[in-house]
Amino acid sequence: MNLTARGVLITGVKRIGAIVAADLAQAGADVVLSYNRSQTEADATADAITALGRRAFAIHADLSKPDACRRLVEDAVQALGRLDVLINMASVYVATPYDALTDANWDAAVNVDLRASHLCTQAAVPHMRRQGGGRVVNFSDWISASGRPRYTEYLPYYVAKAGVIGLTEILALELAKDGILVNAVAPGPILPPPGISDAESDAVIKATPLGRWGGGAEVTKAVRFLIETDFVTGETIRVDGGRHVK
Q1: Whether residue 9 has pLDDT greater than 90
Q2: Closest Cα partner for 156 from 204, 210, 114?
Q3: CA 89, CA 166: separation in Å to the nearest integer?
Q4: Based on CB atoms within 10 Å of each CB, which residue in 13, 49, 106, 228 is the most buried?
């Protein structure tokens, strides 16, 4: 798929999402950015895209709520006039000791990381069908994609991201007849999280065979490939610098 004049919806625009959005705009796409609490980042990204000569809209949506997922897609189509690409990036990543895990902790991660990916896709499919096809790019995690957990205290997150891989595979089968390709990206050490110490960062680098943090551009390359390809569907691509083989 060529991105020129295509309509793209990205859920979650903080950090890596902003980098992906700007890259797709540079390739010619018009973009809707959804945010929950990161309005400042969303507005700044929309302004940067507008400066590139493409259209951009920042829309608030609490994707833990089913109706908000569906409304976001409809608002995006109204703003852009079409929808060709959906990128499900919104995520909840919070450490919680197992003995302290509550129903609310579970729902916070699973509803946003997994259920919202399904609901946004379901709402987007009729619009993509009208365009003769489309692309859905989900976001999992390198740990879930590796088939075994490596850290404690992230149980709902791990389960949700493992579910995203299963969702990606079944959606690829369900939607192939419509020309809608569905794939996933599973990032690893891409950007150091805020507040990480030098020692913690060095430990990540040491554990990564390629010996560095990847940087947001590496995720963007994977996203671009999965949008531009016409013959890859149902795949999960790890962008982890080889972490899964060590």
Answers
A1: yes
A2: 114
A3: 16
A4: 13
